Amino acid sequence: MGFNCGIVGLPNVGKSTLFNALTAAAAEAGNYPFCTIEPNVGRVFVPDLRLDEIAALAGSAAVMPTSLEFIDVAGLVRGASAGEGLGNQFLGHIRGVDAIAHVVRCFGGSEIGHSNSTVDPVSDAQVVEAELMLADLESLERRRGVITKKKRGGDKDARALLEVISMAEASLSEGCPVRSISPDPPMSHLLASLELLSAKPVMYVCNVDEPAILDGNSYSRTLQVYADSRNAACVVTSARIEAEIAAIEEASERSAFLETLGLADSGLARVISAGYSLLDLITFFTAGPKEARARTLRRGSSAVEAAAKVHSDFARGFIRAETISYADFISLGGETGAREAGRLRQEGRDYLVDDGDVILFRFNV
Known about the structure:
- It contains 14 helices and twelve strands.
- By secondary structure, the protein is an alpha/beta fold.
- Helix 1 (about 15-25) runs parallel beside helix 8 (about 240-245) and helix 4 packs antiparallel against helix 5 (about 160-175).
- The longest helix has about 30 residues, at about 120-150.
């Protein structure tokens, strides 16, 4: 799987409508708060034209793209960190996601209710972010007591962990999410171990009406400025338009519909692209007669880490990774042509995988 993304936001901002459209799932969507109580989960394939080209040259019987999992959780209200609304459930459901897609209402009108008196995307974003930060402060306070006891007991790691906790608390007290901190690698590892909600990468999804789908509007532009200041991504889409796209079964008809709107790609494609960039992900491929498959990996991962994505035995008994770049695989007609041209490389376990690498793992267990 590529990554999992929690869809969050205030009630009635279009979260479930967007979830249905992106995943073509049958999650309930309605114009009233807390329509979503239990989280809805949907998985979508990540489109990648490179995979189809690789499969054709490899003569693969099956094509297996990587996927993205969306988790649509309950709408959050002010006071959720103290248990208001469905706050405790909300916070628990997003703790395990890789990234947060925060849907924000960026359209006017009174036909759809709003939890606040006026439409203010930045204020709406701040409500959700504040609740995540308050929940983190409470979590850190509990942890501090436990770790302080360990320090007194002579735990050698407790001192460093208390230092990281103090660093996170200082950031949160200043109104800055934990993801704004950039500690050195050892400290970064300890910070990640705390699993704080405001440390998760965030993309704001501006839910606009149809006239603003191309260039956004004043609401989305204001939110873009805010996102830039918070080290977050920002994507403009329309839940209503995405729902229409999802209802079109034929790919050619979907493309024609997008063209009539002046769009190069769908909101799903933009969300996926933003997610990959936000999490610094790459794709590598395996290909053979049985199947060609795309797999997702963090940029900077080694060949043995990529092998583990295929099977734990591949990593445990790793010998080498026979690697061809995507460009060479295509231009030289596949594995045989690349091998004959001397473009198939024998890489060791510490090789850093590049985006688009086509890899055959050799192993022995």
